[in-house]
Amino acid sequence: MTTPAASPVRPASKARPDDARRALVAGSVGNFIEWYEFGIYGYFATVIAAQFFTPEGGSEAEGLVKAYASFALAFFFRPVGAAVFGRFGDRVGRRPALVLVVCLMTGATAAIGALPTYATIGAAAPWLLTLLRILQGLSAGGEFGGAVSVMTECAPPGRRGLYGAWQSFTVALGLLAGAAVAVVLASVLTTSQLHGWGWRVPFLLTLPLGLVALQLRLRLPPDEPPPPAPPVLAPPAPGPRPRAGETVRAVVLGVGRMMGWSAAGYTFLVVLPSYLQSALGTTFRQALLGTVLANLGFAASILPAGWLSDRIGRRTVMVTGALLVAVLALPLLHLVQDPGRPAYAKGAALFAAGVCVGLMAGPGPAMLAEMFPARVRCTGLGLAYALSNAVFSGCAGLIITEVVERTGNVDVPGYYAAVTCAVSLAALLTLRGDDHERALR
Q1: Residues 403-432: pLDDT tens digits?
Q2: Which of 173, 171, 106 is nearest to 144 (CA)?
Q3: Is 228 exposed, middle or buried (0-12, 13-18, 19+ CB in 10 A)?
Q4: Second label for 242, Cα 20 to 30 Å away, from 119, 345, 360, 417?
Q5: What 3-state class would DSSP assign to 295?
Q6: How far apart are CA 320 and CA 325, in angstroms?
Q7: How far apart are CA 268 and CA 403, in angstroms?
Q8: 162 in Cβ contact with 155 (< 8 Å)
Q9: Residue 273 and residue 270: Cα distance in Å, rounded?
Q10: 100 touches 142 (CB < 8 A)
Q11: What is d(CA 231, CA 235) in angstroms, rounded to the nearest whole number?
Q12: What is the torsion angle, in degrees rounded to the nearest 10, for the CA atoms of residue 178, residue 180, residue 181 and residue 182?
């Protein structure tokens, strides 16, 4: 099937500075909202389990497993969203795709905040929550491909890694914002207030945030302006379409390169609060504080890692991050588990775990963009990202909670992060050392 004729894409090196900045901000803000939402769902997993998945007489562990099952289900709809919205972005344009996904994400997230609980409407409550999670998964799947394509295609020469790193940086900002809201609510509300209505507040806050993101994306340059000034965000120029087999192989390789980043990121940055509460008996506030420290380390390393990858290559930086997690995941977890260790040492361990993940996440978006030609970039990199997150992030909470519950082994999170990063390391070693110096295809 051929693609309709379209305006050519302006090379990244010729992008107008205003276009580049506008694209960077518009791409980043939607991603911030997406990860803020996914963060607060993870942070409030124990509360959501009690409100939606634990009818009278059900156990807390059973409810938490069901809550994470709903969490995982949304991730498995991400590849569908990546395929649908990615194809739309590759054929019609980046801007309309980005506008659609931010509207869908905002509406579904705000609706969760207004959803009746199990105590109000019975068994319909978890089904409605799961439906909204599916809509979030579809929009999140479309978000990454469009946003990263825009950021990397607009990047000035020699700064593609740094521009792409803003996608990962807004992941950290979104998770930190979600953690900050959770900490404030846990500090100012009683447990009964938090379970009664307080958990709704962070979900409802996405409505004004989404309206801001929508305005920014509507101000992006049009996809098909009149000549002679073709836009940064125009659909790809006509040309030979990559063979389907080549694209599929690139997607599979992209999943392999990302799996360690996905698994370790969700283990240390999102699943940690519920794990610390259920396995180690920490309080909700203590668990959130640990998560904040891990996310601060993650945020601190992302932009420097993206910048460094523009100078010494994606492979060197990402291999270093994967290797560090594979080697240090269990020792860092043992330090956190040790009741005799001082609080500052545990905080430093969590911060270090976040830094290691950031070394993979910083260059990651640019690495994926460089794997696919413009004609299939939205779809290809979006699918690689969505599939990796569906399998290795979305299932992280479910796998860890279920295995710890069945075996009693509290080291499961460390094993999970270490093994996935070891496998990812092999895939990352196939990167060429000069990919960062090559023009996007």
Answers
A1: 877 887 878 888 889 999 999 999 999 998
A2: 171
A3: exposed
A4: 360
A5: helix
A6: 9
A7: 17
A8: yes
A9: 7
A10: yes
A11: 9
A12: 80
Decide if 61 contacts 278 (C-beta within 8 A). Answer: yes
- Say how many C-beta atoms besides its own lie within 10 A of residue 415's C-beta: 15
Identify residue 205 by its one-letter amino acid code.
L
- Across 1-25, b (16+ Cβ under 10 Å) vs e yields eebeebbebbebeebeeebbebbbb
Q: Which residue has the tokens 């054929």?
A: 91
Instruction: Tell me which amino acid residue 263 is.
Output: A
Within 10 Å of residue 329's Cβ, how many Cβ atoms?
27
CB atoms within 10 A of CB 80: 17
CA distance 84 to 21: 27
Closest CA to 28 of 207, 170, 143, 150: 170
61-65's contacts with Cβ under 8 Å and 24+ in sequence apart are: 61/278, 61/401, 61/405, 64/274, 64/278, 64/401, 65/398, 65/401, 65/402, 65/405
Residue ranges in the chain whose pLDDT is less than 70: 1-19, 54-72, 221-242, 273-275, 277-280, 441
Q: Is 308 exposed, middle or buried (0-12, 13-18, 19+ CB in 10 A)?
A: buried
Residue 189 is classified by DSSP as: S
d(CA 25, CA 219): 11
DSSP label of 205: T
What is the three-class DSSP state of 438? coil
pTM for the model: 0.74
For 84-123, the pLDDT digits (tens) are 888 888 888 878 888 888 899 889 889 988 989 888 888 7
Rounded to 10 degrees, the C-alpha dihedral 37/330/365/242 comes to: -110
CA 202 to chain CA centroid, nearest Å: 18
